[in-house]
Amino acid sequence: MPLCLQQNPDNTLSVVLPQPVEPSTCSVVALSGAEFVSVQESPWNLTVEQAGQIGGAITLVWAIAWAWRLFAAMVHPSSQPQEKEMS
Questions:
Q1: Residue 33 included in any domain
Q2: Do residues 33 and 59 both lie within one domain?
Q3: What does residue 50 show for φ and ψ, rounded to 5 degrees?
């Protein structure tokens, strides 16, 4: 739960009591670490499972491309550059 704070004349912060229902009325709002991460709009806020799924998908795409390249090399062996013999 976010805390509503007020700034004192000596630049310290104190908790407003009673807490207002709507935090948007506060001049300073303190969030916990989990609350801060949950309100961020960044696409990089991923769980470990989500990051693993994305990494697995990227690895799968690379593996398919590598297998496709091997298959193409077997089907069209002349498309590979040939080494020239030096005389």
A1: yes
A2: no
A3: -65, -40
